[in-house]
Amino acid sequence: MSVKINTISTIKKELINLPKDELIQHCLRMAKYKKDNKELLNYLLFEADDEEGYVSEIKEDIEAAFQEINKDTFYYAKKNIRRIHRLTTKHIKHSGLKETEIELLLFFCRQMQTCGVSFKQSKVMVNLYERQVKNIEKALNALHEDIRVDYEDKLEEVYKGL
Fold first, then answer.
1. Sign of dihedral through CA atoms 133, 127, 80, 46?
2. Which of 59, 85, 131, 156 is the most exposed place for a label (fewest CB within 10 A)?
3. For 9-53, how does the pLDDT look when each residue is reduced to its tens digit (9 = 90+)?
4. What three-state secondary structure class fits 117?
């Protein structure tokens, strides 16, 4: 027996009809159950107003994580880079803005180039890097042409890392 899950539009209609106090209780209950929900709610409430500050904070976290990579064994270095990538994509999803996605992915790729781990010898890591370049290109194509020009020079640096 499975429970029928309603569509987003149906849920939205129900949420609109809820009193404010009950809506707050539902949000808090959702935040208690899953860390991702709590992180998203935190972003929406406290960090969405200052996107530049949010991006710079995430960049600092990424840079610190790359400095802590275990370079002794390639296996652990690869695991660490994948963990940093998951963290980066999670923050990109929280924001939902293409500019933030491009900024963070460009920064991730530059950090990957300069971290001291020779990832070009591993097909898996090269594929990860190439996927990020494709994600940057895809996000760039969704932007207005004037904004796109600002990022094209940075993208050229990332191409050199391949």
1. positive
2. 156
3. 998 898 899 999 998 998 899 889 999 989 988 998 899 899 999
4. coil
Alpha-carbon distance 30 to 36, whole Å? 10
Tokens of 161: 């890392």
Predicted model pTM:
0.86
For the chain, give every domain's residue range.
50-160
Start-to-end CA distance of the chain, whole Å, equals 51
Q: In the numeric block, which tokens belong to residue 7?
A: 């569509």
Which residues, in sequence order, are CB contacts of 60 under 8 Å at separation 6+?
Answer: none
For 99, phi then psi, to 5°, come to -60, -40
Structure tokens at 15: 């949420």
User: Phi/psi at 68 (nearest 5 deg)?
Assistant: -90, 5
